[in-house]
Amino acid sequence: MRRSRGGNPIKRLLDLFSNVWFGIFWAFLMFVYCSIGSAVPWVRQLPWLDMTEFQWFHWWPFNVIVLTFTVCMVIITVRRIPLRPVNLGVWTIHTGIVMLTIGSYIYFGTKVEGDAPVFRRQVRAMLPGLTEPASFVALPGCTAAVTARDGTWQFKVQSTNASWPILSDEHEGETAHAVNVMVQPPKGDPFIRQLLDGYPQYTEDIIPGKGRAIKSIGRKLIAEDLELSLGYAPTTDFSVMETWALYVRRAGELEWKQRPIHGLPRYTDHISSREQVISDPHMDLPLRPIDVEVPPAKDGDPLENASVHVTGYLRYAQEQRVWHEGTQLFPVIELTSIGDDGQTQQHELMALDQTGRTAANGAIEFVWVPSEDRLASLPRSSVATLQLDVPGTDKKQTIQLTDKTVVGGDGPYTPIEGTDFSYRIRGVQDRLTLPDGQRSVSVALVDIKTPDDEFTRWVADLPDMTRDIHHTDNDNTTDPHAAQPQAPDERIHFSYTPAGAPIMIAAYPGGLHFLLNGPKGAAIDRSVSVGEKVDVVPGLALRIDGYWQNGVGEIKPRIVPPEQRRRDAHETFAMIRLEVNTGQGTQTKWLHFNRYALPSSQYTYRQRFSYQPEAFDLPGGQKVEVLFSRERRPLPNAVALNEFKLDTHFGGYTGQVSTIRNYESDLRFFKDGKWTSEPRTIAVNHPTEYAGFWYFQSMWDKPLPNDPSGGMNYTGLGIGNRNGVHIQLLGCCLAVLGMFFAFYVKPMIKRRRAEAAQARARRGRDTEEPAGVSSALEETVEV
Asked: Where are the domains of the chain?
């Protein structure tokens, strides 16, 4: 009879999971899934997925695949593989795989991994009137102000030296970590205090320009009531990998309040309008609006009553200023210099900005003239000149202003032959913007000596602004506000023509003019327009990309094209668009990503750590700082850097990675109110475990090649837990042991059984027992 398709549904389900091909299907699916996640990352980075590798292998489809495969393997093992000694290898392999799966779920389900910088030392300052020492990190350039009973003391870490040689007493020949601190007392001259870590007895002051204080004043310390010492700079938390967070605090505070951000993309740009960013016109930039709410921190959040949302995200962007026409005069021009090799360089010049109107080390200058007829007054020579004229005589001459002719205020006077006059040229001040904001003036300062007087003339290139400054016997200043300016003495005339930059572009109402100046005049002197390329000299051309007479600048993020991005940058150049509504309007700003939520800019040592918070206004006039970074989690024990060791090849560190053999960090942990007595050493590929967390080297403070005394002021620690590793290891060992049994022991057993069966068969033939031969053959087939 035909078997019914009905039956027990549980048995049918068990039969399905007992099917070997069903298990192979899930194994193949798991292989494909893992290959896509690891070898084809762009798939998981698609906009509708936007997953990190960690997220990809935590996604529910992967969990379903692994769980289904594991269940199939368990059911197939129990139902189809008899538990006999010969099958012990298969059972062991499958048991190991199950344990490996369980250990992996524990490992990845509880895994936390991040990193943190640990700075080597901090400086502690104790002064009369302080109840506890003030402290600041011992990084070159770090500054601090400490107010004590006698006033405010200013401190600045001037330099550090990881291997300062000790040359005296019983410690001669040893080295120590030295920190030099510039000290400015409330009264008196500054001095430098040198601190040696571990050797407080060698603390001494150095007087700039004079050397050690003990040789100048007879004692080691200038300010004996100032106590400076070095101590650990403990790290109490770490930043978690592949997370996002906002940090907020009131302006002036040091402690950040953390707001984790959940649901923020990572690989795909999200904007609601192209007007929000700058991008290549040909770049494919689809609009993908987002609105991610960022809930407040639990306690003390200054924005707890505000609505905070992330409304934009950029994976790789840099700030850039864009210009548009406004209503107030502020001429701006954008240029591109083009070399004969095709390389380009962009310049942005502002005519009315004292420092922003020149580029290329002064070789290019952008100026504004109020009318087209004033173009004739522009300098057409790269050499400044001073024209001298003594009325009533034939004494006229042109003086080129060079290093020899500009002698300063202490130089000798040059007599004018045939007259009673003499002069000396103090200096020049070019392109000074006038209060009306539309004109500039250039001035040559000339000391003039007459038979009955001595004064300084400010010779302006605008003749109506030339003035004489007469001084009293006790007044030898050239400041025009310190003495009453007078009209120029008519007995001697000077006029000044400032030097023109080699390349000058002049803007006037309605146009642009281009000048290429040389010592003998202008080689190019003509009008130009936006978009035009001017061949300056062989191998160099300039192109005018944009011009705004009433320029208004706006800072926007510029999306960097993928081909120009650093492959190892990760989230370094990420930005978010943050909207904060305090109930009195919405403020919107783009925030840069910061790798760590540092307390202040003092930690941005050598620009290796970014610190770019943005300020938002609170009701009542207060401000709040907001910083975009990663989530932080507290360490079970604070960690401090006891010592950093650099192991180099013969010849020492030369600035090249190849000269480094290894680097090590000696760490101490804070436990039971004190630091551990014995340091834990970690090195490259040699981590250490403490209180459930593993610590390993992730970065270090490399000395600069031209600064052998610097560097090694911090170490970078990778920090993470490793729960479930022992279960994974046991599972792997069981699987390997099972493979050894299956591939070596089982064939041996089968071979011996086959040999025994053949022997019995031979004995059976000898005794004419065919039934025994049949039984032996059946046993062989069964095995």
From this structure: 9-115, 122-230, 244-323+554-619, 329-376+502-549, 384-497, 632-724
